[in-house]
Design brief:
This protein has one helix and five strands, in the order αβββββ. By secondary structure, it is mostly beta strands. It has a single domain, classed as OB fold (Dihydrolipoamide Acetyltransferase, E2P). A five-stranded mixed barrel has the order 1-2-3-5-4.
């Protein structure tokens, strides 16, 4: 019984003591390459259409990238706790975004 408790304790500790410095280890983190696209819905906004077909609705897209057709690499965290009037894609907070060649 003692060995089982020790094994369970060690497994729990190992799961809690993971490396949090790597943001892309979370299932809520998405990354990829895509294209900034202007959407004329609900007054207009810019979203990211991923090369995988995924639609991302960023909450914090830098003004320098608000141009239709710009190619980008992105790393973002999904926001399941938010709703949007856009109703267009997955709401995300961008962790990093850069122009793609």
């Amino acid at each position: 019984m003692r060995r089982i408790l020790l094994a369970l304790s060690l497994a729990l500790f190992a799961g809690c003591a993971g490396d949090n410095s790597m943001p892309n280890t979370s299932p809520d983190v998405v990354q990829g390459t895509g294209t900034i696209r202007y959407q004329s819905l609900e007054g207009g906004f810019y979203g990211i259409v991923g090369d995988d077909g995924r639609h991302l609705d960023p909450t914090n897209l830098p003004a320098s990238l608000t141009t239709d057709g710009v190619r980008v690499h992105y790393l973002a965290r999904t926001r399941k706790d938010l709703a949007s009037i856009h109703m267009w894609g997955i709401i995300v907070d961008l962790i990093s975004i850069d122009r793609a060649p």
